[in-house]
Specification:
This protein has about 325 residues and is of the alpha+beta class. About 35% of the residues lie in helices and about 25% in strands. The protein folds into 4 domains: about 5-70, Orthogonal Bundle (Arc Repressor Mutant, subunit A), CATH 1.10.10; about 80-135, no CATH class; about 145-230, SH3 type barrels; about 240-320.
Length: about 325
Amino acid sequence: MSEMTHLQRSLRIIQRLLTFNRVTVNELYDHFEQNESKRTIQRTLNDIEGSGFPLTCEIGAHGEKSYSLQHKFKFPALMLKPEEILAAMLLNQFSEYFEGTEIGESIRRVFENMEQFVPRESIAVVSAFGSAKDTFKIHEPGRVDLKPISQILMILFGAIISCKICWVKYHSKRYQIHPYSLLLHGGVIYAIVFQPIYENFIYLSLRRIERINATDEVFKRDPKFKLSDFMRDKFGIWSAKPEKVLIRFDDTVAGSIEGRIWHSSQTLKAQSNGDLDLTMKVGITEELIAWILRWGPFAEVLEPQSLRVKMRTKLKETLKAYK
């Protein structure tokens, strides 16, 4: 380690004080890899206290002094705490979705810069973020490769931020849109846009956008639009009139249903034999039917009758494929 200035040493000690409840001269001596004398460290602690930092000193066993900052003391955090490192690691997993794009490269640079704020003692690896993919991973088979549509994503994201009117070519048709939001669903990124010509909101799969051009014209975003309200009655992304849906799950899979949020309107009720009833108010769509079929013979639709009929029809159609 190169020779450290008094300011650098002081800041490193303050970082330790902000990260840990107490520090001692011996701990700091090891932290500086024994390249700073204990006398120099003690003198720096005295200078920090003399500069107005609310430093408290307690004498423990064998007369060893431990230093800490008062809990109410506020100062810009110079080190990430373990829970903040964990949060950063979880967020970093989304970089896989944008791998090979400009956004993915930007995410990589952000986390490289953040490494300097990670205490070495927090995680026993050379780089806390470098091992993130081995610590936590989002596994979603079938997610879309964004590399071929990287430019479309950047144009669209910029248009959302600046409320720019766009023209898109989608399914060989060209029309004007007001881009509002991006939605990640089932491994696919969708744009939620407003169509002025039809005065409605629709989804556009980024993979199916053939061309997009952002104009210099600005649209006025509807202040009443909320993405949470827009998604409220949908089980996936398809829209239909919401109805009460009651599904009974066999006790074999009940453990996989309970404790999870399938929809904001859901209620769960356990039966005496171990079965579990799931009630939701959602639109009956192909997405909902496909999800119920996923559970095979362990799920039975009890209400409404119209959905029971659709389930029987879908099962008969599926069976024909295997004859």
